[in-house]
Amino acid sequence: MRFGYFDDANREYVITTPQTPYPWINYLGSEEFFGLISNTSGGYAFYKDARLRRITRFRYNSVPIDNGGRYFYINDGGDVWSHTWKPVKKDLTFYECRHGLGYSTFIGERNGVRVEQLAFVPKGVNAEVHRLKVKNTSNTNKSIKLFSFIEFCLWDAQDDATNFQRNFSTGEVEIQGSAIYHKTEYKERRNHYAFYSVNAPVAAYDTDRDAFIGLYNGFEAPDSVREGACKNSVASGWSPIAAHQVNIELAPGEEKILIFILGYVENPDEEKWESKGVINKAPAQAIMERFETNEGVEEAFKELKANWSSLLSHYTLQSDDEKLNRMVNIWNPYQCMVTFNMSRSASYFESGIGRGMGFRDSNQDLLGFVHQIPERARERILDIAATQFEDGSCYHQYQPLTKKGNNDIGSGFNDDPLWLILGTTAYIKETGDFGILEEKVPFDNDEKNTASLFEHLKVSFNHVINHLGPHGLPLIGRADWNDCLNLNCFSTTPGESFQTTENQAGGVAESVFIAGMFVYIGNEYITLCKEIGYEEEANRAQVEVDKMKKAVIEHGYDGEWFLRAYDFYGNKIGSNENEEGKIFIEPQGFCIMGGIGVEEGLAEKALHSVAERLDTAYGIVLNNPAFTKYYVEMGEISTYPQGYKENAGIFCHNNPWIACAETVIGRGDRAFEVYKKIAPAYLEDISDIHKTEPYVYSQMIAGKDAVRHGEAKNSWLTGTAAWNFITISQWILGIKPDYKGLKVDPCIPADWKGYTVTREFKGALYEITISNPHHVCRGVKEMLVDGKKIEGNTIPNFTEGTHKVEVTLG
Ligand code: GLC
Ligand code: GLC
After folding, report:
1. Sorted alphabetically, which keywords does the UniProt record give (predicted)?
2. 36 vs 777: CA distance, rounded Å
3. Which atom of ligand 2 is the closest one to the Cα of 651?
């Protein structure tokens, strides 16, 4: 069942009923000010860091779901309703929500009044703009009262939700004209405030939540709205809010425009005050002025759209498959940008207070968008590298606001360092900016202890070889990519975190997955070293990579597939010998991507086992059989009920690795089948089963052992986005950035006739047309660049101009 449709021309998903199977959200902002907004206007805003600078409040897992947001109410002669359906939930004669790239629009109509809202964060501005067009569609005069409402968060979202003994007494606001300023804690150490304004005179306002809503009411029935009059309440402690009341007279057919701004301002210490106790409002007023008129809004909106058009133009596909086009051209790159901005911090499943930026997550996220905004990728790489220690290990997470490693979770995830190599090589291949390798980057953010970025990559590589176990395979440490495979943890205390509990010493737990990664990423490291003339280092690395390959074939293969790991005691995990968890997805993907066992036929056998034991109609499960009891020696993986999350869920992030692996052995049909199974645009028709947004990937879809097989959770913030973009754009469609130029090496379904990719690369534009007259999966037979035949399948770097590339497979 569908709940809307794709409007590809406008790059929007159009939701036609407010009652989607789960709130379907969008993100506003992609610089410093961010908002999450659902199809019924729920959600919240924050500046940079969803935990430390939360601007508006949101109650996760609330009843009903998705309660709290930027709400508007209409009181039309006693009939109270909202054009976004929530919070009032009165029937609408028309409802529509369009989620676009960095903006959302809402239309709601009832009883001759139509409200059309546009919500976005203008580029370079720390504010959300909410433009409302209120129109009288009836043939009588209308006299309505419109109310706005947002609830401020007292900055630190965690503290805000827990520290009531203090917080109920600290709230402060200022009111000036139609602007309400939230200034809690500004009088002491904070130098920032938030504001909510409207570009029209207000009849009245409220800034105290209980005065506006009434202590025993919900958001759906605030006292002030029902009574048709705000109370001019001034918050003093408790819960500061901003609510405006605007009275509107409308003749038949008449429309009025109101522009609301929810903004954030930081003042330098010396400019904090206008006068004693009165905040300096000048920066806020400048923002309000800019959006005083609709022209200001239109201009900024145009700029936002143009920016997205330009970002998305770096890679575009024209194929016969409409769903594939919309994934590749619109929604997948869009999600990549959001995961780049948010890492795993703030979604409708990530509360914004749990996790900062993940070391491995952020490195992988940047793989997906590096071609769109290389400058920001550069900065990100340097930020991430600065949270590494001298021995190559690194903080597992860091806070986006401080950019410092997070001590609560610490380090010891032995796959982490390798991801830095992959992120950096992807960046250099895209940009040719080898100079980044010479940047001085601190260890553990200590400016007194720095090394070149290349040194950081070297210690990353060495960290693996300095931590090998008895089979010559990498020691796993706390966990590898699978945070829930905790082989040294042995936790028996309920509620204890598997990620932070002190590990038991003396074990020999090894990861075949890290071994596969080491070979794949080690090869990247070797190529880089050769590229910059470090022959000796390349040779040294080659010896280690070869040794690892051998170790995997000798000790990491189980007969029909790659083993997953050895546990603390040296027993096999992911082996036919095990009763549960006989086979795992991750090593099958990464070992084969590293080329291990391809010549020997082991790769093909392993992929056959994946298809036989792990595949389902909705994607490939992580392991099988699922764990039916708690294994203290395996940790969190065995805590989840069968079929959910890392215990045999379809953990989408690793599905693309199998698609990539399939291309390594040349099976384009199967690679695309794997890709398609979890690609949201192909799942639109089963939105009732899938539940999460049909325009973005979710982290997990319940596996075949689960009660709710096919149901997705944790949409938006997942490494799935970046990996699927790489898989489809580079491994399947086969346009791979390389040091020497763009490499063309498609691996596609045999029945495809062809397609065209337009790719911007190092200053030039390439229009690459692939024809497949002989219906093969792989193999470039001939390649013409600007009409001239070239040797091999790498387009040389032209650095400017537009170039036609004609590729024939066969
Ligand atoms: C989550 C984490 C990611 C991890 C994955 C598997 O998505 O963010 O770092 O690799 O789970 O456990
Ligand atoms: C939980 C999740 C896993 C995530 C980890 C780290 O274990 O199941 O997906 O990676 O937390 O926060």
Report:
1. Transferase
2. 41
3. 9
